[in-house]
Amino acid sequence: QLKEILILGCGRHIQPISPELHKFIQSTGMKLEAVDSRNAASTYNILNEEGRPVAAALLPCGVTS
């Protein structure tokens, strides 16, 4: 099943997403939501529990850029 949204957990703080990455994700038909990893995990769990087709990529909260 194709995912409708990719939740990107950026670590402890929200980081800007490169236009290239944003364009690539959109080209797959998914929406991209970039938030801090704690909120990304919570959002993923809620959407998954609702049965929504969702994917997540999470960086540990201790990671900084």
From TrEMBL:
Lineage summary: Eukaryota, Viridiplantae, Streptophyta, Embryophyta, Tracheophyta
Highest taxon in the source lineage: Eukaryota
Protein name (record): Os03g0590700 protein
Pfam families registered for this protein in UniProt: DUF498
Species annotation: Oryza sativa subsp. japonica (Rice)
SUPFAM superfamilies: MTH938-like (SSF64076)
